[in-house]
Amino acid sequence: MFAEERKQQILALLSRQERVTVQELTSHFGVSESTIRRDLQELEDERLLERTHGGAILPEKGKTEPSYREKESVQEFEKAAIAEAAAQFILPGDTILLDAGTTTTHLAKELCGHPRLTVVTNAYHIASILSVEREMDVILIGGMVKFNTLAAVGPYAESMLKQLNVDKLFLGANGVDLARGVTTPDPLEAKTKQDMIRSAREVFLLADSSKMGRTAFAHVCSLEAVDNLITDRGIDDRIKEEFTDRGLKVTIAAEGDGSTV
């Protein structure tokens, strides 16, 4: 097993039980204590865990996922503007994939009345919004539904996503950082998002300006995997310039008038 694969499995174990010991990991992976301690040190250097005497725990920052209801009233106007801007990239006949999230829920509402679309989603509330549209085919991804985010994740979701190819993915995130890329608090959701990215020809990241420069627990992808970041006018000019210098297209949603900058 490669070191990176082992470290990802360590993080997955931590997400399930919030604490691991060196002895437990040594037995689990069949490697030396020095190897495990080096893995833990490297993960701590990346701020993905906190080392303790004889093991490691989840870091306090970034491991807790706010509930959907807690998030839906935060940056509400900015999220609506981002959704309006994102809808302009959707054409009749497109097959699109909507990640679960508050901003993608706004986008689903924007799509009502949009002709000839196929919409795939892992959020049952998004599927419910769009299920009344006669000119739209709605495909609901199954899986384990996360209480906090209302997202279907896990092996059933991943298996279904691997059988699909879509034109455009509209992805949500908790953190967007130049060095650490796109992140989310839960490794299971991160894995499902990764499978979404692999199924799409184009990836649109919908993230309001409060997410910029922030890092959550689980890595989703690097910025190179994203074709277009759609955000609001609150983004810091320096951060925007750093993103564009890396080759990332940044679309700024203008609140209320349906235009983009």
Number of helices: 10
Structural class per helix/strand content? Answer: alpha/beta
Largest beta sheet, briefly? 7 strands, parallel
Q: How big a fraction of the residues is strand? A: 15-25%
Sheet with the most strands: spatial strand order? 6-5-4-9-12-14-15
Which percent bin holds the helix content? 25-40%
Pfam family, one: HTH_DeoR
GO molecular function, one term: DNA-binding transcription factor activity
Domain HTH deoR-type: 3-58
Protein name: Transcriptional regulator, DeoR family
SSE topology sketch:
Layout lengths: L2 H15 L1 E3 H8 L3 H13 L4 E3 L2 E3 L10 H5 L3 H12 L7 E4 L3 H9 L6 E5 L2 H7 L5 E5 L3 E2 L6 E2 L1 H7 L4 E6 L3 E3 L3 E4 L2 H13 E7 L11 E4 L6 E5 L4 H9 L3 E5 L8
Parallel strand pairs: 4-5, 4-9, 5-6, 9-12, 12-14, 14-15
Antiparallel strand pairs: 1-3, 2-3, 7-8, 10-11, 11-13
Keywords: DNA-binding, Transcription, Transcription regulation
GO molecular function, one term: DNA binding
InterPro entries: Carb_Metab_HTH_regulators (IPR050313), DeoR-like_C (IPR014036), DeoR_HTH (IPR001034), NagB/RpiA_transferase-like (IPR037171), Tscrpt_reg_HTH_DeoR_CS (IPR018356), WH-like_DNA-bd_sf (IPR036388), WH_DNA-bd_sf (IPR036390)
